[in-house]
Inverse folding.
């Protein structure tokens, strides 16, 4: 009986977890942009130092793009009236620029 | 101990170190180091201590009673009870196996650029071919010896030159200052990754395959202590690398693709290649052990012929089990499941089912019918019981909080 009670509580918690409010979305996006901005910067530096292969830089850039697309999708759920959404979208643009630069360099294009 | 025994112990220690790291221990340690710097070294230490006790117990059980763990539990508690353990273990082990296949594929992906979905089934097929044609020695020694490549993490950690006093402070449990639910979730994931039931199940079945007897009790104790101890040290080195490379830059570990970044700042291009190989070998080796372990568990539970040294035709149902589960695990990764998320979830789930697996094991280790005069001491009973129950309770609270994202 105790096990059943625990399982029910676990399911209730899980169900509650399915809904995320705007603040959580903002916080998540903020963390993600910080993570990927720094990851792209470090990868770029490692490419300069010949510490990684171009192929790996392409793989990381693809992962970064998927993550940024996911965050862009989540941010659409935040009301447009929320000023934090605008700020984060501007940050996202900067991260995307960094991503595009790495992608081009990994492909053998730009510097 | 004669020379042969000394050689076996040395080989046992080396293979334990080489076989220690796998997708779960790598992923959880990197995430811990990236977010909490050195603060989560203590679950690795605690998990390693408990694992040393459990592995030693599994070897002792096999040497004294000549029973591998699953068949001994079934005999002591009956089939109905063991069926519950079997179902829970099967679900969790399958998730862990899929995450290991995913980790191995990530190693290949970072080297070749090939998509994960294209790599999963060939990797599962390669594992199957090795299990089908190989012997227990090939799996235990061959792959684990290759796994010594994971020492690259220790080399990188030293090269980073961390603040050792600060790192040592992480060996004592402290309360988190931020991301509290995530802190506890990672802590239990680390415990789940370190105290993997398949490790001691596999060890006991291997001891029976190698026909251990009571003369192996001392070598068993040395192998468990030093092998798992050094293995735990490697795991701590992974965390230290992440703490030095990712934490100062505010990089959270959310994708396996970021893994080389914990090594390349210290070791450069050769570190990149070794890391990718290490990830592949560590995860692939763990996948072999897990698949074999699940086959052992099923065969021993239902009384089928079993043994990796037997020809597949002589242990047909045993071979069928690892064939089917490798196929399912390969399909899970082919379907596009994120290997990192799967790894973290499966490690936390492992922590939840630990009492189900470990508590009957403890009862068994105190049963004179099985263990004669070699039953557990009070200290071993206390350490294992307390740690397992604590890990499970934290997991039951931390998993919903992690999903909910609350504080």
């Amino acid at each position: 009986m105790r096990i059943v009670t625990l399982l029910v509580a676990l399911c209730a918690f899980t169900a509650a977890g399915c809904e995320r409010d705007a603040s959580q979305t903002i916080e998540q996006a903020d963390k993600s942009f910080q993570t990927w901005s720094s990851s792209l910067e470090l990868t770029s530096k490692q490419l300069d130092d010949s510490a990684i292969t171009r192929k790996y830089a392409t793989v990381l850039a693809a992962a970064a793009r998927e993550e940024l697309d996911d965050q862009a999708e989540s941010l659409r759920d935040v009301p447009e009236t929320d000023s934090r959404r605008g700020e984060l979208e501007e940050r996202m643009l900067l991260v995307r620029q960094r991503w595009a630069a790495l992608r081009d360099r990994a492909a053998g294009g730009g510097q | 101990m004669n020379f042969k025994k000394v050689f076996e112990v040395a080989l046992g220690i080396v293979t334990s170190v080489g076989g220690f790291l796998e997708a779960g221990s790598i992923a959880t340690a990197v995430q811990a180091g990236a977010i909490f710097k050195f603060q989560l070294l203590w679950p690795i230490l605690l998990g390693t201590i408990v694992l040393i006790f459990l592995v030693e117990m599994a070897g002792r059980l096999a040497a004294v009673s000549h029973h591998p763990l699953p068949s001994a539990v079934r005999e002591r508690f009956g089939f109905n009870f063991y069926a519950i353990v079997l179902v829970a273990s099967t679900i969790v082990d399958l998730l862990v196996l899929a995450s290991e296949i995913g980790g191995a594929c990530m190693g290949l992906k970072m080297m070749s650029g090939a998509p994960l979905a294209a790599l999963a089934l060939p990797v599962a097929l390669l594992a199957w071919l090795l299990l089908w044609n190989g012997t227990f020695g090939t799996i235990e020694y061959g792959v684990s010896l290759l796994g010594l490549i994971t020492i690259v993490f220790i080399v990188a950690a030293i090269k980073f030159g961390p603040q050792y006093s600060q790192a040592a402070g992480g060996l004592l449990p402290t309360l988190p200052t931020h991301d509290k639910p995530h802190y506890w979730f990672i802590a239990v994931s680390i415990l789940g990754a370190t105290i993997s039931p398949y490790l001691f199940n596999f060890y006991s079945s291997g001891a029976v395959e190698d026909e251990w007897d009571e003369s192996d009790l001392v070598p068993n104790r040395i192998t468990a202590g030093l092998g798992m101890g050094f293995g735990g040290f490697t795991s701590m080195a992974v965390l230290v690398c992440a703490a030095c490379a990712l934490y100062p830059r505010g990089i959270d570990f959310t994708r396996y693709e970021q893994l080389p970044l914990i090594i390349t700042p210290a070791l450069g291009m050769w570190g990149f290649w070794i890391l990718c190989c290490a990830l592949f070998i560590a995860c692939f080796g763990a996948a072999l052990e897990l698949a074999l372990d699940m086959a052992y568990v099923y065969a021993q539970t239902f009384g089928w012929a079993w043994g990796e040294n037997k020809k597949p035709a002589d242990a047909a149902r045993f071979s069928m089990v690892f064939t089917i589960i490798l196929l399912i695990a390969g399909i899970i990764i082919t379907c596009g499941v994120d290997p990192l998320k799967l790894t973290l979830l499966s490690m936390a789930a492992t922590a939840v089912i630990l009492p189900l697996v470990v508590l009957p094991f403890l009862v068994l280790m105190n049963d004179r019918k099985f263990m004669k005069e070699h039953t557990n001491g009070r200290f071993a009973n206390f350490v294992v019981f307390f740690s397992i129950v604590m890990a499970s309770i934290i997991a039951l609270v931390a998993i919903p909080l992690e999903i909910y994202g609350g504080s």
The two ends of chain A are 65 Å apart (CA to CA). The interface with chain B takes residues 6, 9-10, 13-14, 16-17, 20, 24, 31-32, 34-35, 38-39, 41-43, 46, 49-53, 55-56, 58-60, 62-63, 67 of chain A (CB under 8 Å).
